[in-house]
Design a protein that fits this description.
The protein is of the alpha/beta class. Helix content is 44%, strand content 15%. The strands form 2 sheets. It has a 9-stranded mixed beta sheet, sandwiched between helices. Strands 7-8 form a two-stranded antiparallel sheet. Strand 7 and strand 8 form a beta hairpin. The longest helix is centred in the N-terminal third of the chain and has 23 residues. The radius of gyration is 26 Å and the shape is globular.
């Protein structure tokens, strides 16, 4: 507690340092400035060459105009929506195990392995599975995969358009991301066809980019909004499980079966200044880190065939170590953009002591990102991911609550999980005007991506509709380390 008070005192001293300097100089400046001195300065300006004054004024005007033309256009988040699948698609742990047994492809040892993973996963009893995988026997096929995609995408988009009142014909940019399902025509074409988007819509379909693809989509939309004036950008983030439930016995591929669940989100961005008054957030920063040039990182999440020809996604045992390395690289770039000067000074001093004065026993100083953000939305990739980041970033249970409750209630919904987490914070009434939120996502490649948002207004949960609205009173819940799956 004493350490925290000392740190806060140093923080307030640094951020107010320039005010202290100005106050100390004010008496001296006041004594130097008299009415006669000000009159002399005015006369000197009037005696200057008029042509020089005109030239200086013109250069100032041109510089000002160039600055306003070249500066990045602000990007606003008008609203977002997360789909809540039908209750018939809920998949308690016992139902999941029943379906796994009924599939008739898993050995007794691997059924026990999946049961063990489920019991320690941090997933609750109300997560959702696609309809095709809940039948007996399961019926994974292209038609059912399309049906899952349509249910998720169109459900989220319908809700979003109803929230914002924006007509589909007004959307000028469309970005859809889904890693493991890439049909022809594309998912983005399905959206264009369903909502009759205009013929010149700028459309992108991102595949194979993992759970961090949602923030890649946000970054792509941000770049496009710098080019296309007065536009709306629709971003759709989802994953598709129907054709990607692994039906083999390679244990490194069975983990994803146990934690991935159905879900998706739609987000509406705009660069129209007239919409800034009703927008929820402004996008402040996006930082992308890609470690695919390193072989270990490239292969740590890998889709391939097992020895029996069954396709699945293998997860390396080094995954958490490589995720930590990607996170450190990402925050090295993000830190100077968001951290207060007090934290940057402490970090620099720590670096000098370790590198210059060879104080090797001193641990590297990890900046306190709680000084930069009020809210954290960490991709709910699994319990181990959340435990590691909670420890490394020294976050409290309150900070981790949106991520842990999203994992518990909806499971790992891939790239859309960040939006379920933000919806949780809103529905809990936590979001105040000026609050800053850090979204962090990890994905195959290996990638770590960040987005920073600033709330433009206080969010009133009574006026919001989200997947949490009808049940937020139940949360947070205590999630035991092990929840036994009943036979």
């Amino acid at each position: 507690m004493k350490h925290l008070k000392l740190k806060l005192g140093f923080h307030y001293l640094v951020i107010n340092f320039h005010y202290l300097i100005l106050l100390s100089l004010l008496p001296a400046v006041s004594s130097r400035l008299s009415t006669s001195n000000l009159r002399l300065m005015r006369d000197a300006i009037l005696r200057l060459n008029p042509q020089l004054l005109v030239l200086c004024s013109t250069l100032l005007a041109l510089s000002t105009a160039l600055y306003f033309m070249k500066r990045p256009r602000p990007v606003y988040l008008l609203d977002f929506a997360c789909v809540k699948p039908d209750v018939a698609c809920q998949c308690p742990r016992e139902r999941f195990m029943k379906q796994s047994v009924g599939a008739g492809v898993f050995t007794e040892e691997n059924l026990a392995f999946q049961k063990k993973i489920l019991e320690r996963s941090g997933l609750g009893q109300d997560t959702y599975f696609p309809e095709a995988l809940l039948t007996s026997p399961p019926r994974p096929c292209m038609a059912e995969a399309r049906k899952e995609a349509e249910t998720v995408m169109f459900g989220a988009i319908d809700d979003l358009l109803a929230k914002t009142g924006v007509r589909s014909r007004e959307i000028g940019i469309l970005v859809v991301n889904c890693s493991l399902f890439n049909p022809t025509p594309s998912l983005s074409a399905m959206v264009v066809n369903r909502y009759k988007l205009r013929g010149n819509v700028v459309s992108y379909n991102l595949g194979g980019m993992g759970c961090s693809a949602g923030l890649i989509s946000i970054d792509l939309a941000k770049q496009l909004l710098q080019v296309h004036r007065n536009s709306y950008a629709l971003v759709v983030s989802m994953e598709n499980i129907t054709l990607n439930w692994y039906m083999g016995n390679n244990r490194s591929m069975l983990v994803s079966n146990c934690i991935f669940r159905a879900g998706g989100a739609a987000i509406l961005l705009t660069n129209r200044r007239s919409d800034s008054r009703r927008a929820k957030y402004q996008l402040i920063h996006t930082v992308r880190t890609n470690k695919a040039s390193e072989s270990r990182s490239y292969g740590c999440v890998f889709q391939e065939e097992d020895g029996c020809g069954k396709v699945g996604v293998a997860l390396s045992k080094d995954l958490m170590v490589l995720a930590g390395e990607a996170l450190r690289t990402n925050i090295t770039t993000l830190g100077p953009l968001v951290l207060p000067m007090s934290e940057q000074l402490i970090f620099f001093a720590s670096l000098v002591l370790r590198k210059v004065f060879k104080m090797r026993r001193m641990r590297p100083y990890l900046p306190d990102f709680k000084m930069a953000f009020e809210h954290f939305c960490i991709h709910a990739g699994g319990r181990a991911v959340l435990d590691t980041l909670e420890s490394n970033l020294e976050l409290s249970r309150w900070h981790m609550e949106p991520s842990r409750m999203t994992l518990y209630r909806f499971g790992n919904t891939s790239s859309s999980s960040l939006w379920y987490e933000l919806a949780y914070a809103e529905t809990k009434g936590r979001m105040r005007k000026g609050d800053r939120t850090w979204q962090i996502a990890f994905g195959s490649g290996f990638k770590c991506n960040s987005a920073v948002w600033r709330a433009l207004r206080t969010i009133d949960p009574a006026q919001e509709s989200s997947p949490w609205t009808d049940e937020i009173h139940r949360f947070p819940v205590d999630v035991p380390a092990v929840e036994v799956v009943k036979d």
